[in-house]
Amino acid sequence: MALADSKPNSTHEEHKVTSMDIDGGKNEAMHGDRALALIGNEQVQLTEEDSRRICRKTDRVILAILVWVYFLQILDKSVLGYGATYGLKTDTNLTGNEYSLIGSIAPIAQLAWQPFSSYLIVKVPHRILMPSLCLGWGIAQASMAACHNFRSLMAARFFLGLFEAGCLPLFSLITSQWYRRAEQPIRVAAWYGTNGAATIVAAALSYGLGHIQSDVLREWQIIFLFVGLVTIVSSPFIYWKLENDIPSARFLTEQEKAQAIERLRANQTGTGSREFKWRQLLEAAMEPKTYLWIAMALLLNVGASVTNTFGPLILNGLVSDKYMTSLLNMPFGALQIIVILLASYLAQKARVKGAILMFFMIPVVAGLAVLYSVPRDNSAKAALLVGYYLLAFLFGGNPLIVTWIVGNTAGTTKKSAIMSVYNAASAAGNIVGPLLFNSNDAPAYKPGLRACLAIFVALVAVVAIQWANLIVLNKLQSKKRVRNGKKAIVVDHSMDATYRAMDENNTDEEIVIAEENAAGTAQHAGDARLGEQAFLDLTDRENDEFVYIY
Questions:
Q1: CATH architecture of 48-473
Q2: What are phi and psi of 501, to 5 degrees?
Q3: Handedness of CA 72, 74, 80, 82 (dihedral sign)
Q4: How many CA atoms lie within 13 Å of 439's alpha carbon, on the beta-carbon side?
Q5: 3-class SS string, 152-173
Q6: Which end of the chain is more exposed for a tag (fewer CB within 10 A), N or C?
C-alpha cells in the first residue's frame, strides 16, 4: 500500500503514531515485531526479482512443511469414516449415537483447548510447537488400533483432537508471517487443499490395506496403525527443516532476511512477536467482525464434518460393496482439490473473497437438496452420487475465510486469538455436524440433510453482513487518518500481483489524488513515510494505515 506525495503538513508530528506513544516510551524492539531488531525503521532496497526469489525459497521450505503436516492431520482425522466401513462399529460394539459421539469428541477437545492454544502459538517457537503437536496426534491415532470399545475410542480421539487443536491457527499465523497478502490465498489453498489429497489417499489406503488378511489385526486396525506411524516418523523431519521466523531462517542470507521482512511491510500485519498482549485479546473480543468470523466457521464446518465423518457411510448407502465405497470417494477428493485451488485463485484475482465465497456455496445447497429430495433406489443412484460430489464445493470456503481473517487482522496476539476462536468455532461445527445424523436415519439421513440446507442458507447471509462490515471499517479508518493529519485514501499495494515499494507512486494513485483534489477533500500526509508502523505489532484498529480487504 502506498500513500501519495503531498505537501508538508505542520500537524503531522503532532499526530504521528510511534512506538513511544504505544508502549509508553519503552524500547521498540522489545515491544514490536522481531523484525525490528533486524531492520529497525529503515526501508530495505528490494526489487520484484528479489521478492520472487525469496518467495520461491520460502515455498521450498516453509510451504512444503505446511502442506505435508496439514495433509497428515486431515488423513488422521478422515480415516475414521473408512474404519467404520471396514468393521469398526461391529468389532467395537458401537450402538445408537456412539459412533457420532466418537466423531464429535475430537472437535470437543479442540474446542476446550483453544484458549491454551492461542497462548502457546505466541509464546512457543514454531519449530518446537509444530513437531510436538504432530507427534502427539500421531501417537493418539496409532493408539486407536488398540481400542476395543466405545470408551477407549473416545479417549484416543480426545487426545487426537487435543493435539490437532493448534494446527489451523498455527498454520494461518505462519502463512501471514512469511507471505504478502496477495500471495496468501494460494498458499493457504496449497496446505488446506490437502483435504482433497487426504481424501484420495485415505480412500486408496483403505482399499489397499483393507485387503490385507491378518489373524492379529482387523482391517480398520491396520488402517489406523499405518497412518499413525507415518505421522510419528514425520515429527523429527519437521523439527529439522522448520524455521521459527524470518530473522532466524537458515535458508536465507542476512541480506535476504532483511529483504524478506521488507517485502511484507505493505501487509501492515507484522512478522510476529513473542509477547502476549492482553489489550489485543480484549480488542478482538470487543469487535463484531470476530463474531461474524465465528459464525462463518461454525456454519461451514457443520457441513464439512458431515462429509468427513459420514461421507463414506452415505456412499455405502448407495453401493453395497465396501471396496467400491472407498473408490467412489476418490473423485470426491480430487474435486475438493480443484475447488479449493479454483476458489483461492478467483478470490486472489478478483480481490472479492466475500462474493467468491457466496458463489461457491450455491453448488453445496444444490447438492444437499438432491440428497434430501431424491429417493434411494437403483434408478436414482447416479443423481445421488452427483449430489454428494457437489458437497465438495464447501471445501472452497475454509481457505477463503482463513485468508480473509489473516489479511484483515494485525497484531500477533490478536491474530492468534482470532484464529484460535475460528478453530474453536470450526470444532463446534464438527461437533454439531455428526450429531445431526442419527444412525437410525440411515441411509437417507433426511433430518440431518434438512438441517444442513438451512445452515448453508444462513452462511450466505453472514458472509454478506461481514462484507458490509469491512466496508464500514475502511470508512472509519479513512476518518482516523484524516484526524491524524494523513491522506484519507490509502492505496493497498499488498494485494498487487507484483511487489512494489510502499512509497512508489503510480498512475492509479495519481488518479485517486486528482479526484480527491477536484472534490476538495484531499488531506496532506506531511513528511510521513508510509509503513513505519508496519512492524510495531499494532492491531488493525491501532494502525491507521491498515486497509481492510473484502
A1: Up-down Bundle (1.20)
A2: -60, 150
A3: negative
A4: 12
A5: HHHHHHHHHHHHHCCHHHHHHH
A6: C
Q: Residue 90: CB partners within 8 Å, gap ≥ 6?
A: none
Q: What residue type is assigned to position 315 of the chain?
A: L
Q: Which three cell numbers stand for residue 178?
A: 512469511
Residue 244's φ and ψ, nearest 5 degrees, are -75, -45
Asked if residue 290 lies in contact with residue 408, where contact means CB atoms within 8 angstroms, the answer is no
CB 405 within 8 A of CB 296: no
For the chain, what are the domain ranges? 48-473
Contacts for 251 with CB less than 8 Å, ≥ 6 apart: 57, 60, 61, 243
pLDDT in tens, 293-302: 999 999 998 8
Q: What is the DSSP letter of 218?
A: -
CA angle (491, 493, 499) in 5-degree steps: 155
C-alpha angle 75-76-78 in degrees, rounded to nearest 5: 65
Please give the Cα distance from 468 to 13 (Å, whole number): 34
Taking the C-alpha atoms of residue 430 and residue 104, their distance in angstroms, rounded to an integer, is: 6
State pTM to two decimals. 0.79
Would you say the C-alpha torsion 368, 369, 374, 375 has a positive or negative sign? positive
98 alpha-carbon distance from chain centroid: 30
Q: Is the alpha carbon torsion for 115, 116, 118, 119 positive or negative?
A: positive
Identify the three-state secondary structure at position 491: strand
Tens digits of residue pLDDT in 381-425? 778 788 888 888 988 998 999 999 988 998 888 988 999 999 889
* Cell reading at 152: 477407549
Distance CA 464, CA 475 (A): 17
SS3 of residue 436 by DSSP: coil
